[in-house]
Amino acid sequence: MALVAPAVLLYGFLILQPAVDMFRISTTDWHSLLAPMKFVGGANYVRLLSDAKFWAAVGNSLVVVTAGLCALVPAFMLGYYLSRRPPGHLLFRLIFFSPGIMPATAVVMIFLGVYMPNGLLDVLVHALNPTAQQTLWLADPSNALPAVIGSQVWGSIGFWSVLFFAALAGVSRELYEAARIDGANEWQVMWRIAFPSIKPFFGLAVLLAFLNLLIGSAQNVLFLTQGGPGTSSLTLSYYVYDQAFVDQNLGYSQTLSVVLFVIGLAAILTIRRAFGIARHA
Predict the structure, then answer these.
(1) Total-model pTM
(2) How far apart are CA 192 and CA 261, in angstroms?
(3) Can you list the domains of the chain with their CATH numbers?
(4) Other beta carbons less than 10 A from residue 252's beta carbon
(5) Is 44:240 a contact under the CB 8 Å cutoff?
(6) Which of 2, 137, 158, 199 is 20 to 30 A off residue 85, Cα-Cα?
(7) How far apart are CA 238 and CA 232, in angstroms?
(8) pLDDT, tens digit, 9 for 90 and up, residues 80-112
(9) Are 277 and 201 in contact (CB under 8 A)?
């Protein structure tokens, strides 16, 4: 017990104490670090129910998370292809993995160039349809959220494909050969042999990707759209930032953080059960 005591104390100080403070501050009306806190009980939670921006943020976050998790499917397929070690697979792994380790600011700068007027996306659109009008991708309410999603999942497909490749390296080649001898085609081998063999790892990928999309989308929204136009690209994690650092409504921002915490915890428990992670942990 004495050996783990320092780690337990450090965990309590860095993790548990801030979590307790989050719940405590969520019951206050607090508008500045220098201002006194005013206890308001559950008033902030009642405010959530009638907050149109909150519900818009929840809906947008659901879209971002769903699109990001769907990207894991082509990532797995790409990882399976790499596991077959085609010619140049070492170079492909390097290329696919590199976007995932780029700083968020660098990724955003790339996509600002893609989405800007007469940028790469406009050039491609006009190449396919010379009569198409110029689109303001980040200023159009119908395109702003898809633009954020594009920047969010761009590097994740290659990043996860390399990790799936590493997981598939542990699957016996004999299973693949036996399936092919029995008449299975490549599609059946991929989904009936390869995928079930790494299902717990895929579940872990879903779990980590979910949390990253739920919380990490704030930085892309901040750099690209600031939640606009209107609330068209507002996500729940960015709304927390907006309330805390822009509107200086610290109490309400922590109420939103509690909602994020509850959603994240529920997702962890659901995904662990769905993919049997607990049984393989």
Answers:
(1) 0.90
(2) 35
(3) 43-280 (1.10.3720.10)
(4) 27
(5) no
(6) 199
(7) 12
(8) 999 988 888 889 888 888 887 888 888 888 898
(9) no
